[in-house]
Amino acid sequence: MLTIKRTPSFDAWFASLGTHPTRSRVLLRLRKTQMGVLDTTVPVGQGVYEMREPTCPGWRLYYVQRGSVLVFMLGGDEHSLQHKDVVAAQAVAAALDDSDQET
């Protein structure tokens, strides 16, 4: 089983979804991820991975893995903004400290 940590930037994005149907899909996706289901993920550089949400075309979740801990940094936006989101996720990943590592 994987441990999920969420950064403040992820929580802010998630809160911005309000009651949008994507919110429940993301919650389901995080539960599946916690159980070890890491499908539809691709590396985007600097240790950051992009997890695509197939039921929400264009939406991405960005994370890094530290042992059995997955740190979700950003929730993505439309595909057209992907480059900006990847750069932002890489910056957040670079700023993570040792408390985000598996103990």
UniProtKB/TrEMBL annotation:
Organism of this sequence: Vitreoscilla filiformis
Annotated protein name in UniProt: Transcriptional regulator
PANTHER family linked: SSL7039 PROTEIN
